[in-house]
Amino acid sequence: MPPIADLGLLPESAAEHQGGTTLCADAPWASACRDPDTVEGFAAVVADYADRLWAAGVRPGEVVALVKANHLDIQALQCAAVRIGALPALLSAAMDPADLLDCLRDLRRPHLLTDAVGAEVLRPWREQLGALVPRLLTLTPGAGLDGAVELGETAPHRVTRHHGTDPTLITHSSGTTGKPKLVVHTVDSLYAHVASQIGVVRSLDHAGISAKCLSFVHVRMSSGLLTVLNTGMPFLGITSPGPARVCETLLRYRPQALEAHPNMFLRWEALAHNTPNPFAPVERFISSFDAIHPRTLRTLLEASDHPDPAFIQAYGQSETGPVTVLMLTRSDVRGAGLSSRDVGGVFPGMTELRVVDDDGSALPDGTPGNIEVRTPARAESIVGRAPLPGRDTWWPMGDVGVLRPDGHVELHDRQVDRVPGVPSTLRAEDVLLDELPELAEVVIIAVEGTVTAVTATAGGTPVEEERWRRARRAAGLPEDTAVDHRPWEEFPLTGTMKVRRNRLPSRAALG
């Protein structure tokens, strides 16, 4: 079928062409009319949700803010809202409550749709909610906020068709560097996230399942759904990143492709040594968020039983979609010196990238500076912010890196995360993880002027002092680098499992 970019119409169209294709979640659809396991079933759930939203009084042009448990049903609810002409705003229930309230305030009195998980997060703030949202809707009978109306009644809805420049979706940035931004995507900008990917997927053998363990409110999941429904790729949504649950799910479904956030893959490294091995059938590992550590790449690719597995890494952000792409094989990662700094080259004919100094002047290849891009996938606007410049202007990514003569981009740091005396925290963290296999996580920050390594080990025991000193020297860190060892569970994370570096110093400063 020809590509369709309208999220409201796409499920129905996909059901007509490939209704029997697998599309399912690893956990029950608690709020849906059925537990769909095919594209046809997914489309039926979307239509039912659209009837329920319509019966609840949601109408074209209105904003529906969604705060609920992480599950594939978020994507069905999103499609249902778009189908009736509303504008869905997908907010993570894992967001800091103060940030969540700020987002609701910026959305200017949206409908608020929650379930038991969302209600639990918002209940302490019930008095403030009354001034921020005109109506509370709940998917969970008896577990909503006081005064919430259950989304139970149905009424035939009216379908709204969307054109390329129409706003179709609001998602939010991770908030690793401050308050999350509410990013508005149009039909065209969202489709540009995946236009080239759809062509690639159609050229591949994708008879096996593509599994994604992501934050289902992230724009990557919405663009992923566009790809899945346009190509007929069998799909599995994994709801929880817990290693035991993930292992069970992978062994049950045996996916051909597996996508997750980089820190999820890092956390799953130990699963590669399980018997049976859950990664054995995976041919393609995919990540499109932060740069991923080389140790994790090696572990995953070596764990696959496929003769030539690949890791596909994309670099981008919520506002731009993917900017560069890199594909690595076993032979690429077995050599010494591999760094997560290399995130590949731009998408030909679609994205432009340059590196500039602080005054905006382009720098020669190999010179570190600020990364800027131009892409048709850039978002339309940011809620509560000044209008964005046209897509023909250069967009600052907020990252420091270099453009190599071969066209590949190397990341050094986020601009706000730079640590004086450390040329690249990314490189230093890569080296430490390679030198110290027991590390489950390490983050380099500055605390009151002192370079500090915040660490967690798989077994919970701090790294032996002499081994730490050797690893520190290999990483090029100063001799007086402090170590703050803490349990992995105490690392402050976003909904996409990025470490919130700006929240780490509080405890480190006490040491």
UniProtKB/TrEMBL annotation:
<dbReference type="InterPro" id="IPR050237">
    <property type="entry name" value="ATP-dep_AMP-bd_enzyme"/>
</dbReference>
<dbReference type="InterPro" id="IPR000873">
    <property type="entry name" value="AMP-dep_synth/lig_dom"/>
</dbReference>
<keyword id="KW-0436">Ligase</keyword>
<dbReference type="GO" id="GO:0016874">
    <property type="term" value="F:ligase activity"/>
</dbReference>
<dbReference type="Pfam" id="PF00501">
    <property type="entry name" value="AMP-binding"/>
</dbReference>
<dbReference type="InterPro" id="IPR020845">
    <property type="entry name" value="AMP-binding_CS"/>
</dbReference>
<dbReference type="InterPro" id="IPR042099">
    <property type="entry name" value="ANL_N_sf"/>
</dbReference>
<protein>
    <submittedName>
        <fullName>Acyl--CoA ligase</fullName>
    </submittedName>
</protein>
<feature type="domain" description="AMP-dependent synthetase/ligase">
    <location>
        <begin position="45"/>
        <end position="377"/>
    </location>
</feature>
